[in-house]
Amino acid sequence: MKNHVFRPLLVVIGLVVIVLIIRTLYVPKDFGVHERGYMYGWYREGNIAEWKTSVKVKYQGKEYCSGCHADKVQAIDKTPHAIIQCENCHGPAHDAASEHPSEQRPKLTIDKTRAQCLRCHSKLSYPTSGRTNIRGIDPDQHNPDIECVMCHNPHKPGLEGLK
Amino acid sequence: MNRREFLKNTAKAVAGITVPLAAIEILSPARVQALKADSSVRWAFLVDTYKCVGCGLCVKACKNENEIAYDANVTRTWVERYVLTRDGKLYADSPKGARDGFTSSKIDLGMGKLQDVKKEDIKKAFFVPKLCNQCDNPPCVQVCPVGATYQAPDGVVLVDRTWCIGCGYCIMGCPYGVRFFHPVYHTAEKCNFCYHRINKGLKTACVQACPFGARQIGNIKDPNDPVAKAITTERVGILKSEFGTKPQVFYIGLDEEVR
User: Fold this and answer.
1) Which ipTM was obtained for this model?
2) How far is residue A47 from each of residues A11, A126, B74, B157, measured CA to CA in Å?
3) Whether residues A17 and A30 fall in one domain
4) Could you report the per-residue pLDDT of B49-63, keeping only the tens digit for each?
5) How far is A75 from chain B (nearest CA, A)?
6) Which residue in A2, A31, A129 is closest to B52 by CB distance?
7) Which of B68, B70, B153, B226 has the greatest number of C-beta atoms within 10 Å?
8) Do A59 and B61 make contact, defined as CB atoms within 8 angstroms?
């Protein structure tokens, strides 16, 4: 083969080799075709473990709260509000109890706003939705200027719990 | 060099370049088949729209749990309201993804316009929670040019944040509009059934936060799983079945208006 063909060919082959070397160095070992085949399963396997561990669990659930606040949980369990998770109003607990000694524990921010109560208790008469069955008010008519918790106790939601 | 020689050499060169590339390509159908070991877990979701009251506590919990900027108008899960009037009009809205719930009968028409529908005019009205369908044939995964999004062996579609180049093809490809750009990482973002929770034996943040049991998650491959039982024995619907995506989020009480 003549020189003027061979030389550029060498350059091209050299480029291909360089690209392949960079590829082997850059692409992680666990990147490739996995269970679901090339179309759905072409990925870096280590990412699965990363997703399992890198995100912290913030919402711990009612059982976690009752570990220390059993009295509160038992009391609310006798009311219709038993279905509501503590953290829905008190904010995510993170792992406060285990991570910090009691005096350094970060305070949870309690959502006592009117907006929080209105999520369910703003009356919407929607047939074929559970919303119809919840006792509710018209927020524009029912004491629009004050917070619900001024009169109502969310831990004793019945009318007998009025302050 | 004459034309014959030139063509011969070109063919040789092309063949020479292709051979090493083919050798590098890791795809062999036999190997792929061997790897297709049947996983014993396949996560599926069941939504009961009759139970949903549109409180939006699921959206709030999801945003906090998965660190999605609370005030940015993006969310991994959201709740839609559908109101059908007696004169045949359909209104649907989801202000802020229902992060703050539905507290008013006024329907958000967009551009700051609100439409109040009187109680007497309503024929049907209900709420529909939405989240990633974790499709068996995920179109968002097919279109990813770099292998940054994929289906894990347990069926959940995940995004590799270190690998995503932010091209946005998957956001366009999802027929359900589930994907968005993460405002902090600038990569594609989506619901992953709280992957960090379900693998620790916990429920997803939205399932746990829902006071009414409208959301449930389970392993469809476990015959004793209550959610799997409900999906296989009750009448359930899926969204946009015509796309052939085989969604794994099943709905009780789905209506034709729901898209």
Assistant:
1) 0.87
2) 37, 44, 23, 12
3) yes
4) 999 999 999 999 999
5) 17
6) A129
7) B68
8) yes
